[in-house]
Write a structure and sequence with these properties.
The structure holds 2 protein chains of 2 kinds.
Chain A: H1 8-13, H2 19-31, H3 33-51, H4 62-68, H5 89-112, H6 137-156, H7 163-189, H8 194-220
Helix pairs in contact in A: 2-3, 2-6, 3-5, 6-8, 7-8
Chain B: E1 2-6, H1 9-15, E2 23-30, E3 36-41, E4 43-51, E5 55-63, E6 66-72, E7 75-81, E8 88-96, E9 101-105, E10 109-113, E11 119-123, E12 128-134, E13 137-141, E14 146-160, E15 165-178, E16 183-189, E17 192-197, E18 202-207, E19 213-218, E20 223-228, E21 233-238, E22 243-246, E23 259-262, E24 265-270, E25 275-281, E26 286-290
Parallel strand pairs in B: 3-7, 3-9, 4-8, 4-10, 9-11, 10-12, 11-13, 12-14, 13-14, 14-15, 15-16, 15-17, 16-18, 17-19, 18-20, 19-25, 20-26, 21-25, 22-26
Antiparallel strand pairs in B: 1-6, 2-5, 5-8, 6-7, 21-24, 22-23
Classes of the chains: A mainly alpha, B mainly beta.
């Protein structure tokens, strides 16, 4: 397996990778649980930071301040920008702690406030569809190849399992395949949705895990 | 190490082709404290109970298989060898309380009660029932149902591919999984709990500890979490077409009281948000209930 994505994850999340790097990252993520976990952590961190409320002050203080300034200086408008996340993985850990503290504080403020808070976005704003590439074609192909290998291995050991077990395993794989198809269909509708990307990756993982487990039990028997 | 080979039905089948008769084994081995018991079987049944002696007793009724038994003061290892792939063996095992158990079978049901030590039990197509364990526990089946009750002071891993998973009265960390079966967890008291199924439903009841991590994930099944005592958690909810119903007042529902939402991905805080509670169902309903008793609508 290639080296872990490390700091590339930030660029990946921000949609800043070129086509080739993006495909390579997607393929790596498909087979690397550590990087997927790191990506998930980064996404959660991003969502939490996005959820921190850039709320304006309760009342506009500028008028009172400006009137005290010589010549009534015009306010300098600082535009809101989407927060950009560019962390190394060690920074991610430290930032996570800070964000937990900050978001707890924000939650207290929101609880006190009378208005409805905005929900964390299900998608990362501005991330191109392909950038959430757990579902990238290359990533899916990596899974498909691993799944095919295990299916072939299981087929070779099929005779060691009784028919009821084979039927149960096949039914379970049908269930997982259905979940995969539904996740893919949902992703086609909402390609940027982090949950759906993670959900699809997890369903593929689950299929791999079941095949691996049953194959090893069949081999042991 | 003493090796006891019990030739059973091979002789019988030679003498009486096509008419295998039941054969019996009954061996008792003295063991020192902490001795292990291991068993590999193919089909039939395995019943393990504790007794108040420093001995392990192996009783087997075989229908064609040979039973090999390796014994020493540090443990007993038993293996059923089928004849031409055939031969049920019904095992009844008595072990000292606290004996570490490791039992694997192809299609035998496994039932281990009151031993109360660390346990690894696995059957491919048989069911597995465990009552009382202390320390790390692994219970697994591919197509059978699995259940575990009264587990303490360790990490519990319990899974079935197509069967249901039932866990009751666990104190410690827990991972429970199925693909098409339901996963039911009652009175689970741990601070690291992970549960998942694909098409089954998930039910959990137990306290949510302030520093704990709890993850519940289903694809199409409902997820019901019934919390005992106060809840103080950061809750993340992910769904594609499902709903959330919460008894707990949550910050995204300023009116308080029971909340209901429809959507995809939210995070909110209950209390001071100490615990981390991740709830996912792609298309099922997620229920966050107050109190451990199930409701009619659950």
């Amino acid at each position: 397996m290639a080296e872990h994505l490390g700091e590339q994850l930030s660029a990946y999340l921000d949609g800043e990778l070129g086509d080739e790097a993006l495909a390579a990252a997607g393929a790596h993520l498909a087979v690397c649980p550590e990087c997927r976990a790191a990506l998930e952590g980064l996404q959660q961190l991003a969502r939490r930071a996005e959820a921190l409320d850039d709320r304006p002050p309760e009342r506009d203080l500028w008028g009172a301040i400006a009137s005290r300034l010589p010549g009534g200086a015009a306010p300098k408008v600082i535009p809101f920008r989407r927060r950009r996340f560019d962390f190394s993985l060690p920074q991610l850990a430290a930032a996570g702690i800070a964000i937990v503290a900050l978001s707890s504080g924000a939650a207290v403020l929101l609880t006190r406030g009378a208005r409805t808070p905005s929900f964390p976005a299900a998608t990362a704003p501005g991330v191109p569809a392909a950038a959430t590439g757990l579902a990238s074609a290359k990533g899916i192909r990596s899974y498909d190849a691993a799944i095919r290998d295990l299916e072939a291995s299981l087929a070779a050991r099929r005779s060691t399992l009784d028919t009821a077990t084979i039927r149960a395993v096949e039914q379970s794989l049908v269930v997982i395949d259905r979940a995969i198809r539904q996740a893919e269909a949902a992703l086609a509708q909402y390609p940027n949705n982090m949950y759906l990307n993670n959900h699809l990756a997890h369903a593929l993982d689950r299929k791999l895990e079941v095949l691996r487990r049953v194959t090893s039990m069949a081999a042991a028997s | 190490m003493r090796r006891i080979v019990t030739a059973l039905a091979i002789a019988a089948s030679t003498l009486v082709p096509g008419a295998l008769r039941a054969q019996s084994v009954d061996s008792t081995i003295a063991v020192r404290s902490g001795a292990r018991f291991e068993l590999q079987s193919v089909s039939g049944s395995v019943r393990i109970r504790a007794w108040n002696r420093s001995q392990i007793r192996v009783q087997a009724e075989s229908d064609g298989a040979r039973v090999d038994l390796d014994a020493s003061s540090s443990g007993v290892s038993v293996r059923a060898i089928p004849h031409r792939g055939e031969g049920d063996v019904d095992f009844t095992i008595s072990v000292p309380v606290g004996t570490p158990l490791e039992v694997h079978a192809i299609s035998a049901d496994i039932d281990a009660s009151a031993v109360c030590g660390p346990v690894r039990l696995g059957s491919i197509s048989g069911g597995v029932t465990l009552v009382c364990a202390t320390g790390d526990v692994e219970v697994e089946s591919v197509s059978g149902d699995v259940s575990a009750t009264d587990i303490r002071d360790g990490h519990t891993e319990i899974s079935s591919t197509s069967g249901d998973v039932e866990v009751r009265q666990v104190k410690g960390s827990l991972t429970a999984r199925s693909v098409s079966g339901d996963v039911s967890l009652e009175r689970v008291d741990g601070d690291d709990v992970g549960v998942e199924t694909v098409s089954g439903e998930i039910g959990f009841s137990g306290p949510i500890h302030g520093s704990g991590r709890y993850r519940f994930r289903s694809h199409s099944g409902d997820v019901t979490v019934r919390t005992e005592g106060d809840l103080s958690a950061t809750v993340s909810v992910s769904t594609f077409s499902g709903d959330l119903e919460s008894d707990w007042p949550i910050t995204i529902n300023p009116g308080g009281g029971r909340g209901r939402m429809h959507g995809q991905d939210w995070e909110f805080t209950v209390g001071n948000g100490g615990a981390r509670l991740n709830l996912e169902s792609f298309s099922g309903t997620i229920y966050l209930r107050r109190g451990s008793s199930p409701r009619r609508e659950d």
